[in-house]
Amino acid sequence: MIKVVAKNYFQEGKIDEGIALYNQLIEETIKEDGCIKYELYQDIKEPHILTMIEEWEDLTKLNAHEDSEHFIRIFPLLNELTEKDSEFHIYKRLS
Q1: Residue-range domains of the chain with CATH
Q2: Residues 36-51 pLDDT 10s
């Protein structure tokens, strides 16, 4: 099992649009083979920061997600709303 933490910094006034796009992405992604969890979180102190915390069976399933129609369609739209590049980290469990 692997976990992904993907953090995005949204432009002022674009957070609601970002949440709406993420909700579309979540709706489709949770149906994917190998997706265990796909959850959106908002930073309490800095609400313009949204973070996806994902759990996948393995890296192959995550790669398939990144090639999915909905990811390819929605992710560029999210990037248009951000003020800087995403922070994207993939983790494996050690204990």
Answers
A1: 2-92 (3.30.70.100)
A2: 999 999 999 999 999 9
Per residue, what are the HEC states of 17-75?
A: HHHHHHHHHHHHHCCCCCEEEEEEEECCCCCCEEEEEEEECCHHHHHHHHCCHHHHHHH
CB burial of residue 2 (10 Å; 0-12, 13-18, 19+): middle
pTM (2 decimals)?
0.92
Q: Is the dihedral of CA 89, 24, 69, 35 positive or negative?
A: positive
Sign (positive or negative) of CA dihedral 83, 37, 88, 74: negative
